[in-house]
Amino acid sequence: MRYKAVFFDAGNTLLRPYPSVEQVCRDVFTRAGHDIEFDAIKKAVHTGDRYYEMRYRKDDSFWLSEVEAASMWVDTYTLVAREVGINGDGKRLAREIYDEFGLHHRWQLFPEVCSALKALHDLGLRIGIVSNWDSRLSELCAGIGITGYLDFILSSAVVGRMKPQPDIFHMALERVGVSPEETIHVGDHYYADVLGSRSVGITPVLVDRVGTAATFDCITIDNIGALLDVIEKA
């Protein structure tokens, strides 16, 4: 078998917010006495997503710091609150939303993930997570029940390196003692995951669950289970 290791991104690759970002925001707003329509929150979250992408493209170094990553998310959720008409206590509620996403029950694995990780583990592959995330990721992975399949978890804010920088991928390779040519990295973000892993010689695989990546120059799959075919055919 050509490959000996598989690295994964975390968010929107292995796990997703539960039941949704919009519902978590609504739960926090409702507890504070703000009765906001779901559609209004959905529109506001879309605005928040655009704000995040703007910040990320302008300067993604916030992922290197626990404090800066938290500040970025609080700014994003403060914008969401403002978009639905919450101003006075918007920042406080934004911090509550951020804290909610530190709880494992606010995350859910995609349906195929557990069986796919088990199959990869049974093949003898080394498995790790390489993610732009804060220090809460390890506890989240334990809470949702996948730590037993993992050899390591590298969170950018913990190790002080981030995707697409090559250093974090080199650290991952060192953790399991494999070469880039023996490794696949799977993620949902072309810039961070594909370009980052490719820069050190790792084979990138892009997860495209909604069919938008047809023109990208890399292997694409629509779910993690399809990775088994990629490995078997290599």
UniProtKB/TrEMBL annotation:
Any coiled-coil regions, as ranges: none
Listed Pfam families: Hydrolase
Signal peptide (from-to): none
InterPro entries on file: HAD-like_hydrolase_domain, HAD-like_sf, HAD-SF_hydro_IA, HAD-SF_hydro_IA_REG-2-like_cap, HAD_sf
Domain of life assignment: Bacteria
UniProt name for this protein: HAD family hydrolase
Species this protein is from: Candidatus Aquicultor primus
